[in-house]
Amino acid sequence: MAIGDYLRAFRRFWWLVLVATLIGAGAGYGYTLFTTPEYQSTARLFVTTQSGTSVGDAYQNNLFSQERVVSYAGLATSEQVAARAVDQLKMPISPEALRGKITATPLPKTVLLDVSVTDPDPGLAQTYANAVADQLVQLVSELETSRRGGTPAAGAILLDDANYPTETAGMSLLTTVGLGAAAGLVLGLLLAALLAALDPRLRARESVDAIAPAKTLGNLVADKRRPDVPVANLAAGGLAAERLRELRTNLQFARTPGGRRPQVIAVTSPSRGDGRSTTAIDLAATFAESGRRVLLVEGDLVNPTLTTTLGLTDAERTRAEQRGLGTVLAGDHDVASAVIANPGGAAFALLPAGPSPASRRQLWGDESAGHLVDDLRAGWDYVVVDTPPLTTVSDGAAVAALGDGALVLARIGHTKTKPLRAALTVLETAGAALLGTVVTCEPGHERELSKQPSGDGNPVVAPRAEDARPARGGAARPNGNGGNGNAGNPGIGNAGTNGAVDAPTEAIDQTGAHRMSGAKREGR
């Protein structure tokens, strides 16, 4: 995981980090509250040796005293000193218990030794410390005196009697709570990083870029304020609409491996719920907004939803149930009779899935499928195909291979890493071009979502009947029938098929262009 991944994990699991910090602070407070306070009393000893007459002797004696301080510290915590102190005090405490209360600390680079005793009673702590110091002085005198008698080679002198402690020993309440909070914070950060590492779902567009060989062409934001309408209201403006337009621009400037502008675009994804249908509808509407003749194809013959989503009239719905892509591929109907012009008032045409065919896979593998795609490319400026997920049905890869390439969607917080890799492998195996990836449902800021764009946006609605003109090539072109020839958005039929988008000075190849964004809908 990169630093950015950790930062996103901490931002995502901020509540976990906060809870862990509060629990740590509470644990520190509870420890202080329920722990018996103890007091520490300290007596200080001075270690001496026999003095010499020269400066060299004095220096050697000082080093000897410093070495003796360490030895005397060990004696202070010995069982013999504790037993002698208990005998001196005549108090109800065992030598083992008193020994556990004693600490001896030599002061660095000095001949001073601090002997401390800790006890819940400050008075007893002082009494015990004085007794231990007295007995240590006596024991040192006995050990340093030769058996033949004479002056001890070294000794310990009680420099300061034990004090009466007024403050508890150990850390203060503030320090304990602070350390507990710090420990909880570290634990919370570790848990957040662990959960993020174990989460297989994609959480940012950078994760998609790290997996996909092609760049991200679009970054569609999640707009919770969007009303429950089938087609994005591009005229309303805002960040969501601008991101859709940026996706359209990137596709217009993209190029297939053969060097041509992509016209037949398969919109697919690794799994269901990634927003394919919603993105396909919005992409078709965005292309239509720019004055192009657009055909939206319901390529998911397994689970078609476009006819329901677009809100067709009863007559259109009846027609969609009788004829569509399946019957066209089977040779039962021609394209002109199956295409629905301006479904639900949209500015693009729709080729519904139609009745479910008996052998769906054979239809896409038949030679007629290739002819159909070529005819659609010749009759429309853009053909957007809503396909099933790549990891469950092979139709998406077949459409992408027959057409100009595929847009692979990855929904933030939903699409998983493994299925995305598998979907890209399916496309590669089928020999389909990957135009780029599109990140969907990225969280958008409320202020950005409501911001009006600088450019003008026209509502993407069907033209008036009196303004309708037959679309060039029309829907009837594949089979030469004239019926329903205005299905290709007649109000904007003056756009040239080949001259719809001027070639850029420096074409962007099929790996994509810039990162963009658009709107959230609960797509398949």
TrEMBL record:
Recorded catalytic activity of this chain's protein: L-tyrosyl-[protein] + ATP = O-phospho-L-tyrosyl-[protein] + ADP + H(+)
Biased composition, class Gly residues, residue ranges: 480-496
Annotated InterPro entries: AAA_dom, Bact_polysacc_biosynth/exp, LPS_length_determ_N, P-loop_NTPase, Wzc-like_C
Localization per record: Cell inner membrane
Membrane topology annotation: Multi-pass membrane protein
Record's GO cellular component terms: plasma membrane
CDD domains, alphabetized: BY-kinase (cd05387)
Residue ranges occupied by any AAA domain in the UniProt entry: 263-393
Region ranges (Disordered): 444-524
Limits of the Polysaccharide chain length determinant N-terminal domain: 5-89
Enzyme Commission number(s) of this protein: 2.7.10.2
SUPFAM superfamilies membership: P-loop containing nucleoside triphosphate hydrolases
Alphabetically ordered keywords of this record: ATP-binding, Cell inner membrane, Cell membrane, Kinase, Membrane, Nucleotide-binding, Transferase, Transmembrane, Transmembrane helix, Tyrosine-protein kinase
Transmembrane segments: 12-31, 173-198
Gene Ontology MF: a single term: protein tyrosine kinase activity
Similarity comment: family membership: Belongs to the CpsC/CapA family.
Name of the protein: non-specific protein-tyrosine kinase
Taxonomic path: Bacteria, Bacillati, Actinomycetota, Actinomycetes, Mycobacteriales
